[in-house]
TrEMBL record:
Organism: Diaporthe ampelina
Protein name in UniProt: Putative tri14-like protein
Domain of life of the organism encoding this protein: Eukaryota
The organism's taxonomic lineage, starting at the top: Eukaryota, Fungi, Dikarya, Ascomycota, Pezizomycotina
Length: 345
């Protein structure tokens, strides 16, 4: 029997996950297994949610989960049935880039064998604590992995087997040294076009990287934006985290999670992302959000869109790494996004 929550999730209605200290920072849907992978921020674990049964299983990572210095962001499924998981040093986000010390780790996890296949320490191998704030990952058509850093905006690349970890895009040396200048927030991949999209907090704009799988280095290209139907220039986006290209729109719609405001809906009519229209904001100032901030969005199933809610100011439970919250709303935004698209046909 399919639970009522499953019907709610797949139909696109707001639902609540009752799980102590879940604090989801990111979510990715696995279309092959029909599961949602939540990055459990403060406990540095992965929450595996089955929308059909309402079950939530926790993946604990040896030497990582439970470490108070570490946070966990995305857990992204790949074509081999594995997860690419990104673990970051929480200090960078706690101090807005003033302290970029600590371990940042990218790893590959085998869901069937329930074990880590490989693990790389970005700090030890690349940054030497000179920059940081890593918070999102994506794959290209060859399953290479791209890792976005925020303090300041950087992108690293490593192949699917964990080999060749290296900087792929770095700003000029003076900008790289300024770790309090926030840069890229998230990544979204258009594999058919070999393109990555990112949101840049330095100027509130969207950028495109072309021909990524064959490029030794990345070159960000500004995606100029107007308002709906080209009516006016589009204002910069406020401080934002993850971005999503929902599968249901065939890579023509980008959702940008602006922490304190909600979700921006941006469209490229032809899916080339040489230009785009900002269609509007799905506000998070609603009772269902329970005062949370939006770190990411996720598509669950063939049609339903949701925003996550994060609560950074919850009081810490003594002896743990996180707050006292036990219920986390997964807020439906399907109707609002579809309405913005309908109004600007």
């Amino acid at each position: 029997m399919v639970s009522r929550t499953a019907y709610i999730a797949l139909a696109g209605s707001t639902f609540v996950i009752d799980e102590f200290q879940l604090y989801p920072e990111n979510a990715k849907f696995d279309f092959s297994r029909c599961l949602v992978y939540f990055g459990v921020l403060f406990n540095s674990s992965v929450g595996v949610f089955n929308p059909y049964t309402q079950d939530l299983e926790t993946i604990l990572l040896p030497g990582i989960s439970g470490d108070p210095a570490l946070h966990l962001g995305p857990a992204l499924p790949d074509a081999q049935g594995h997860l690419t998981v990104l673990v970051d040093a929480g200090a960078a986000f706690n101090t807005a880039g003033q302290d970029v010390s600590g371990a940042n780790i990218v790893l590959k996890y085998d869901l069937d064998q329930r074990e880590v296949i490989w693990q790389r320490d970005i700090t030890e191998l690349i940054t030497q604590e000179a920059w940081g704030g890593f918070q999102d990952v994506e794959h290209d058509k060859d399953e290479n992995i791209y890792i976005v850093g925020t303090y300041p905006g950087t992108v690293l690349r490593v192949d699917k087997d964990g080999n060749g970890l290296k900087p792929w895009f770095l700003p000029p040396a003076d900008e790289l040294a300024n770790t309090t200048a926030a840069g890229f927030g998230g990544l979204a991949s258009i594999r058919e076009r070999d393109v990555l999209l990112t949101n840049n907090n330095a100027d509130g704009q969207i950028y495109r990287f072309d021909g990524v799988s064959g490029s030794e280095t990345g070159i960000p290209v500004l995606v100029p934006r107007t308002g709906p139907n080209g009516t006016q220039p589009s204002a910069p986006i406020g401080f934002s985290d993850a971005v999503l290209l929902p599968a249901k729109y065939n890579n023509t719609v980008l959702l940008v999670a602006e922490d304190t405001a909600g979700v921006w809906v941006i469209r490229s009519r032809d899916g080339k992302w040489e230009s785009a229209e900002t269609l509007g904001l799905v506000s998070n100032n609603i009772p269902e959000a329970q005062g949370g901030q939006v770190p990411a969005t996720v598509q669950i199933g063939p049609d339903a869109l949701f925003s996550l809610e994060e609560y950074f100011t919850d009081p810490m439970v003594e002896g743990t790494n996180a707050g006292n919250r036990s219920s986390f709303p997964i807020v439906s935004i399907t109707a609002q996004v579809d309405e913005l698209l309908r109004k600007s046909r």
